[in-house]
Amino acid sequence: MTLVFATNNPHKVAEVNDVLRGANLEGIEVVTMTAVGHTTDLPETHETILENAIEKAEYLHNKYGVACFSEDTGLEIDVLNGEPGVHTAHYSGSRNPADNIAKVLNLMHEATLRTARFRTIIVLILRGGEQYVFEGICEGVIRLEPAGEGGFGYDPIFEPVGYNLTFAELPMSVKSNISHRGRATAKLIDFLRTT
Ligand code: IMP
After folding, report:
1. How many domains would you assign to the chain?
2. What's the per-residue H, E or C state across the chain?
3. Whole domain around residue 32: which residue ranges?
């Protein structure tokens, strides 16, 4: 079975591939959207990450008739009432990670409660149209200042529970083991093993 990963984000592809490589999924090949000739962004028009993940997977499935999975992620900060949430990618009005981080740190400059979580939803659609949803959550805190050069997005300000390093300071193999995306991908893998 070939599964198309419904994303144009190279960081997400690298992280999911890191988990898949270790899983030894015989008979299942994961390819990117370029394999079906799709190079533009997929639609994300909803107000929840679940609806956006469903929209992206359905778009690809309906257009190309392929088995595929999509992924949508939000950062939920408690003192900001769960924001940026579904607005994580464009929180500052742009996609620029430095601007998005600056907005979060500005809004939180007096906050002592710094708990937050990343939430990932993966939606799998098989050739016949059957849909399955997998969720992964990683709890942590928002740092006062960015640290680290690795990862992407908000990684320099997110410190996962149990570590005193940010995601941007941890090697990808460690991030993959404990992250929202890693956990959701592990559930996808468990499901694929039994199908
Ligand atoms: P989307 O899932 O493509 O809508 O992405 C949401 C946004 O969340 C991305 O543009 C990143 O800014 C951020 N993001 C998603 N996953 C991660 C992660 O693992 N670390 C840090 N930021 C992330």
Report:
1. 1
2. CEEEEECCCHHHHHHHHHHHHHHCCCCCEEEEHHHHCCCCCCCCCCCCHHHHHHHHHHHHHHHHCCCEEEEEEEEEEHHHCCEEECCHHHCCCCCCHHHHHHHHHHHCCCCCCCEEEEEEEEEEECCCCCEEEEEEEEEEEECCCCCCCCCCCCHHHEEECCCCCCCCCCCHHHHHHHCHHHHHHHHHHHHHHHC
3. 2-193
